[in-house]
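Supplementary material to the annual report.
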Amino acid sequence: MTGHVSLRAEAGPLLAVRNLTTSFQQDGLWTPVLRDISFDIGRSETVAVVGESGSGKSVTAMSIMQLLPRSTSRIEGQILFEGNDLLALPDAEMRKIRGNRIAMIFQESSLNPVYTVGFHMVETLRRHRGFSAAQARKEAVRLLDRVRIPSAASRLDDYAHQFSGGMRQRVMIAIALACKPRLLIADEPTTALDVTIQAQILELIKELQDQDDMSVMFITHDMGVVAEISDRTVVMYHGNAVEEGPTSQIFSSPQAPYTRALLAAVPRLGSMRGLQDPLRFPVVSKKTGLAEPVPASVPTVDPAAKPILEVRNLVTRFDIKGGTFGGLTGRVHAVENVSFDLRPGETLSLVGESGCGKSTTGRSIMRLTQPSSGQIIVEGTEMSALNRNGLRQMRKQVQMIFQDPVASLNARMTIGEAITEPFLAHRMGTRSQARDKAADLLERVGLRADMLNRLPHEFSGGQRQRISLARALILDPKLIVADESVSALDVSVKAQVVNLLLELQERLGLSYLFISHDMAVVERVSHRVAVMYLGEIVEIGPRDRVFSDPQHPYTKKLISAVPISDPERRNIRNGLSNDEIKSPIRPINFVPPQRDYAEVSPGHLVMKDAAVSVGPIKRTRP
Amino acid sequence: MLRWLFERLFQACLVIAAMSIIVFIGVNVIGNPVDILIPPDASQAERLRAIEYLGLDKPLWAQYLDFLRNLFRGDLGTSYVYGAPALGVILQRLPATIELALAAMLMAIVIGIPLGLYAGLRADRWPAKLLMTGSILGFSLPTFWVGLMLIMVFSVQLGWVPASGRGDTAEFLGVQWSFLTRDGLSHLLLPAINLSLFKVSLVMRLTRAGVQEVLPQDYIRYARARGLTEKRVIWVHVLKNIMIPVVTIIGLEFGSLIAFSVVTETIFAWPGMGKLIIDSINVLDRPIIVAYLMLIVLMFVCINLIVDILYAFLDPRVRLSARGTK
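Predicted assembly:
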């Protein structure tokens, strides 16, 4: 009998999901959130489940693990794992599979903050492998070593917040591997990580998968990650699996209209080679899969024009206080000697990883953060020379939009009030003029004028970002500082908002200071790019030059870490690194070194003396 | 950690010093104890002698300095009424109050936390809803009324437990305690219930709110995804996280239990500090009032310190910030 079962198990796929339908109970009604999903995961295979928010990809994982609350959810169909139907298993049996035969990792913030990482590991090992406390500790050290956490034994008694994001995710992977699972379900494990760290984690997962002969179900919204890691892909949309197949086939000849629309909206690094101006994303209908023609780029920059914004030797430092009497113990050199120009109609992108000072640069220009020194010149007027009134006038010229449109719109104000508020505060006209203008702007950003009386919660994330844009535009600014403004949006929404930004630039001649960590979007929208590292600009130049001929080691590292949305161009793997992102915290007496820049081609400046250690460049591209 | 403790102790001393001034001056501007203590028919010489004996002829600052000097010797003055050291008089009554407060707090924890857990975990069931409604009664019913009702029902009508006094006591660590004897325990029951009713409701609501906040967290989902039993998820992963606010509140409330057990002690004729202070205020026995207030201040400061230490023990993130930026 056992022989028969194992034989059957050996023959079939490791996991077979058959006609999975999951419903949630809302207000007494059962609403299906997954409809008739079927797919297989073979042995040692990596299957990506990809989709935008609300597509049901996480619910699929939670249904397989049966982690949905019993009282408000219903799972129908079959989930065959090693030949047994998980849905038919009693709770106690299912618990023996969770964390043991099927392990799961989430975003790296999922460790209990009040327990040490060792506690989590020992707990899991004792639960499933019946180890003694001492045995479990020993094994935990071995596991942390396996995921390449430096000095593993001494870190066992640290808490999650004492690790960096990347190291936390390594801990979670170590815990997942504790019981040698047959299947690893990874639910957006790299979404909150910087690209170089993401690349490390993806490689680590792949390597461990090979060693342990484990299958992986990888849930993500990032087509680049899908192309990088998966053998097969399931595309989800509104609770349906709209397409399933080998990853290369999904990318080369997508069948479902939605897959085509999704792929069209994905920015691909390198696709802009040879183009000078930003290019809009092609718009593909999610229903028909047919593409509208992409309007040709219109040059918006006059190379002879005077810059609208000049930043000279900008320095912003933050004091770190500590000790008994709150004395100065160090400084964060957030922005260090940054200079650049921005011309009318131009988009300059500031790119870099967390802590590189790109957002602080934007905030310093807006005077939301007081810079320590340096000049910010808007249309020939130096900002620091202005009195409060002058500063107010100047602020009209420069507007900012933020990453989180939920947090930047007051939930109790109608969007009409929100949009007209700056107009009225600057006494630019009467209330009815403000309303007319707001209505006009709503149309311009692709919404309807009759939406003025609605509240922010009635809008989706993408719509709210459009509203933020309308609010910024009501003062007729010449420059918009966009701080990670499209980062939190779903792929297709992101493409729409980027298209809108480009359209507004063409029509109104706006300049953008586009702050982003997303290299692929940056490549799409910018005229020029400045790469920041530890508060300094290490490379600045025309976008095409920087992307096709990066000079600084950090720029090269950053570009090579971006996952490419093309399974045919997977990165060659050669060894894992566990470099961390360095911190710009320095002792009080630190004197920043004098930097020189070399001009490699017209306008393309690179910091000389690349002695700045950025860590070895592990990955190269053919 | 040690330096952090030192800092906290230093702050605590500042608080106590400031309070000593406020208390001393505050008490000295109300009324004149001489009028109450000395018979109206006493001669002028007797009056002056009494004033001098009590040290009331000196200027206020000199009185304060005397008070401070004595304070360091552990002498908080001599009660005008009892003619004995004020501190001694209070400390004699302290165990009764502490016993009552501890009993009430224990009830609040032992009853409040499990009920709160239940109400949080099964929020949509009717017993949970009943508990939440009931807790509103616990908040809003006045203590004195509940006390009277308890006496009427359980002492007068049913005759199950006595209504007043401490009953038999037994000695432990040199102090008399009621809870060590059967009779004392039966005397303790009603006042403790009376005093704890509010706290039970508070702890329960707090626990419930904590559970509701912690349950949707990623780390709970993750704990379940690792195949841990539901029992372990709740008693290990949920409980420690909700203990952080609960411990803070329990600590602060313990101080207020001792300080404000006045009503309960009066109704149940419980011979504790609360009853003493009311009596002392009536006759303006300044040393007792000052000593009592100083003792309460000291206690609040100590409790706060203990809560902070517990807090750091429960929440590792607090430990880090206490050490300064890493």
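The interface with chain A takes residues 3, 7, 124, 218-219, 221-229, 232, 236-237, 240-241, 244, 314-317, 320, 324-326 of chain B (CB under 8 Å).
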